């Protein structure tokens, strides 16, 4: 009999999966990527990438978790015990991401408070890097702990671990059912307000105006696949773990389509809101849109405070709404990331959920203090870049090659998905996973390796990147094999797939 916890309903699972997929990247990465890669024309390769890589991979991960009913390491071990390391590698990637992701949420939480009196003043850039982060001068210098970051970081971890202690149904499911609707409503308010600002139409024109000539550029297609891949929480154990908590009768394929399109819908909404606001800022400064477009930390914590400064009314309220949105989007993703190693530890070492949360989450929380120091931003930037480019993307590539080509398991997975889903998978699904996805991810990987050999990321010293970037990405792979090598007495009994589950509501 399977004693694994379950979602209270399929809607609860979808809400949690959507909450995991909708993260900081939807708000601060997608708008700039679309603008720089053809504007309105970018949506064609983006939709193609969603249908040929994003959703097929989501279906595959949902099916692996549902069929083998375990954390990512246990599910891959049940698939073939030689490949347990793949699950642990993905869990290690999640662990690394959780350590710095929590710190960015802490920044957003701080800025939600700063918004009420526009604490960043007339120089948000100087405020962020100087007064708030107290950034060290040299990459690699740790410096002291920054209290303004450390205190909200403690709150972020208290909320995250508190939700995880409550479990799947009473913790993660309820939290997502509250956070996601609040996030969508607040963000809609921001978008509607942004659309009424002077210059908003010019911003939207810049965002949607298609540059069809760029469609022929392979880099645009790689950017589209990269955006889909990095924004759907695929390739690092989350969706395998979440779907392992589904009851036996659950429509997997339909759930994957809903999750994929909900994530893309929020990205489009973010693009509209961000470019309407950027159009307003460009109009206020009398410059072109291209001079104010930004992404990542710069967009969220420098450009948006500048926009908020120039809002005609209720600056503090809309500023706090924006940073609360970032906080909620980050928290729902962080919860899913931490759940991967909580489940992995629980399955491997036969410990209670509370112990797994305390040990796994607690260790990540302690390590995250490194990113709350004066040198934290440098470590965060390097770890984020390398664990995404040579962790998530590489693990995703290895995953489809092993499942599709080495183990040839796609037919079995297709049969399982078809048995519980309304939409039956055709040959398109296997073609996407055995040909299109490996080719695109392989091309991306080769390009990334060439780029990073030619020049150091962001011009950082090689000695710094060796341990903070390359070392982190390679260390995650090594950890995968180390955890696989740990033998437990009941390994054989664990590899048996548990019996029936109940039917979802």
Describe this protein's structure.
This protein is mostly helical. It contains 21 helices and no strands. α6 crosses α16 and α17 (376-406) runs antiparallel to α19. The longest helix is centred in the middle third of the chain and has 35 residues, at 315-349. The two termini are 20 Å apart. The mean pLDDT is 91.
What key phrases describe this protein's structure?
505 residues, single chain, mainly alpha, 74% helix, 0% strand
How is the secondary structure organized here?
Blueprint: H1 10-21, H2 24-28, H3 30-36, H4 43-68, H5 72-79, H6 84-114, H7 124-132, H8 147-165, H9 168-195, H10 200-208, H11 218-231, H12 238-243, H13 252-285, H14 296-310, H15 315-349, H16 353-368, H17 376-406, H18 410-420, H19 427-454, H20 462-485, H21 491-494
Helix pairs in contact: 1-9, 1-13, 1-15, 3-13, 4-5, 4-11, 4-13, 4-18, 4-19, 5-6, 6-8, 6-15, 6-16, 6-17, 6-20, 8-9, 8-15, 8-16, 9-13, 9-15, 10-13, 13-14, 14-15, 15-16, 17-19, 17-20
């Amino acid at each position: 009999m399977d004693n694994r916890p379950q979602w209270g309903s399929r809607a609860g699972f979808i809400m949690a999966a959507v909450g995991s997929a909708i993260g900081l990247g939807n708000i601060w990465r997608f708008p700039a990527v679309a603008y720089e890669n053809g504007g309105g024309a970018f949506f064609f390769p983006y939709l193609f990438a969603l249908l040929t890589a994003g959703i097929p991979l989501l279906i595959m991960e949902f099916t692996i978790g549902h069929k083998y009913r375990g954390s990512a390491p246990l599910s891959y071990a049940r698939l073939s015990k030689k490949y347990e390391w793949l699950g642990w590698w993905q869990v290690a990637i999640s662990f690394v991401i959780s350590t710095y992701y929590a710190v960015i949420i802490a920044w957003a939480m701080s800025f939600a408070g700063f918004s009420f009196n526009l604490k960043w003043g007339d120089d948000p850039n100087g405020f962020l890097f100087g007064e708030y982060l107290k950034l060290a001068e040299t990459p690699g210098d740790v410096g002291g702990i920054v209290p303004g970051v450390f205190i909200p970081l403690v709150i972020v971890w208290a909320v995250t671990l508190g939700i995880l202690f409550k479990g799947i149904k009473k913790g993660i499911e309820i939290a997502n059912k509250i956070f996601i609707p609040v996030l969508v409503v607040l963000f809609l308010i921001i978008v509607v307000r942004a659309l009424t600002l002077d210059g908003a139409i010019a911003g939207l024109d810049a965002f949607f105006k298609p540059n069809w000539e760029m469609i022929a550029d392979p880099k645009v297609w790689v950017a589209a696949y990269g955006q889909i891949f990095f924004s759907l929480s695929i390739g690092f154990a989350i969706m395998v773990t979440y779907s392992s908590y589904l009851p036996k009768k659950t429509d997997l394929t339909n759930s994957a389509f809903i999750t994929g399109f909900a994530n893309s819908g929020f990205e489009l909404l973010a693009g509209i809101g961000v470019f309407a606001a950027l159009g307003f800022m460009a109009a206020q400064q009398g410059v072109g849109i291209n001079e104010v477009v930004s992404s990542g930390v710069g967009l969220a914590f420098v450009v948006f405070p500048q926009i908020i400064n120039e809002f005609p009314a209720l600056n503090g309220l809309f500023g706090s709404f924006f940073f609360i949105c970032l906080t909620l989007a980050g928290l729902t993703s962080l919860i899913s990331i931490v759940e991967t190693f909580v489940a992995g530890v629980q399955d491997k070492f036969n410990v209670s959920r509370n112990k797994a949360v305390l040990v796994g989450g607690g260790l990540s929380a302690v390590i995250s203090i490194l990113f709350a120091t004066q040198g934290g931003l440098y470590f965060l930037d390097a770890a984020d870049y390398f664990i995404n480019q040579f962790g998530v993307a590489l693990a995703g590539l290895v995953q489809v090659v092993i499942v599709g080509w080495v183990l040839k398991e796609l037919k079995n997975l297709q049969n399982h998905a078809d048995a519980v889903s309304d939409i039956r998978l055709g040959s398109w699904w296997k073609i996407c996973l055995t040909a299109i996805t490996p080719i695109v991810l392989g091309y991306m990987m080769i390009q990334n390796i060439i780029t990073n050999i030619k020049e150091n990321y962001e011009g950082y010293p090689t000695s710094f990147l060796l341990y903070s970037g390359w070392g982190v990405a390679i260390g995650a792979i090594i950890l995968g094999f180390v955890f696989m090598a740990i033998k437990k007495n009941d390994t054989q009994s664990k590899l048996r797939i548990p019996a029936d589950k109940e039917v979802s509501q």
